[in-house]
Amino acid sequence: MSTSANLPAVTVLGLGPMGRSLAGAFLKAGLRTTVWNRTPGKDGELIAQGAAGAGSAGEAVAAGDVVVVCVVNYDAADAVLRPDPVARALKGRTIVNLTADTPDRARTTADWAATHGVGYLDGAIMTPAPSIGTPKTVFLHSGPKALYEECRSVLEALGGTHTHLGEEIGRAATFDIALLDIFWTAMGGYAHAVAVARAEGVTARELAPFAQGIGAILPPFFAEFAEDADSGSYSGEINPITSAASTMAHVVAVSEAHGIDAGVMRAVEGMARRVIGLGHGTDGFLRVAEVLGRH
Ligand code: NDP
Fold this sequence. Notes:
This protein is an alpha/beta fold. The chain has 2 domains: 10-166, Rossmann fold; 203-292, N-(1-d-carboxylethyl)-l-norvaline Dehydrogenase, domain 2 (Orthogonal Bundle), CATH 1.10.1040.10. 52% of the residues lie in helices and 13% in strands. It contains 12 helices and 10 strands. The strands form 2 sheets. The chain has an 8-stranded mixed β-sheet, with helices on both faces. It is elongated, with a radius of gyration of 23 Å. It starts with a strand and ends with a helix. The structure holds NADPH dihydro-nicotinamide-adenine-dinucleotide phosphate.
């Protein structure tokens, strides 16, 4: 790996909000940084901060030891990386793919990289673009440990915490999917709660401190219920699923009385009723994880 001032040269492909934040952090950390984006005109601020602009993806790849890809999804990443001359230029270099997609797409991309003589690490960014370069940012990585160690100085320039989850290349995307599952269903619940509260004359601002309070109950549950999930014993001593299902029915009733779609809560209640129907009514809610996916 060639270095400038003992640091690898880095290329960033994709200059959306996240790609621009990544490139900005590399520049701040003193890394020689080359940037490229499919649609021209997004590199101006970065060039003003010292980045090298590139006229093509191939030119950008040729300028870097480590090639960070951050585009909308793997269809876009494939469209950038797989055609020649980019694929040819990648040979002998390392891709760090920070694009979000599914574990299977990570695996097929890793297979492609292996057959083209390209080092491949997959990653997921768990915090928003403005967090990049700060202690708050969280990155998850998977792929060959030796390659990860080789790229550490580049990755650490992005700030925050970096966790290598293992060599199986799909692991970063698997964690990403699971965490996004939590995040977006919670956000969907919050948006729905605001709609229902408003219909009853309560503003989002009035609700906010109590919404924060109920949100704060969740993190300890995640640790506690993980024990249950991994051991397969779901104690419902504190809140049996029969009682939980009854409160879900109240949410459905109030929503529908106001003409507000209760589809999400109906789905959750349906899961709870299924568990009860299978004879597990005295168990806790997480028993649901056992029956999901069962036909
Ligand atoms: P977007 O997800 O909106 O992606 C925009 C980038 O993708 C642009 O550079 C765009 O190029 C490029 N792109 C789209 N289609 C193609 C294509 N067919 N060929 C080449 N390039 C293409 O922006 P972000 O920067 O926000 O996100 C990038 C990745 O980071 C995503 O996977 C996202 O999930 C992830 N992420 C983003 C976070 C955030 O806070 N923004 C937080 C955590 C993860 P063009 O300008 O030419 O359209």
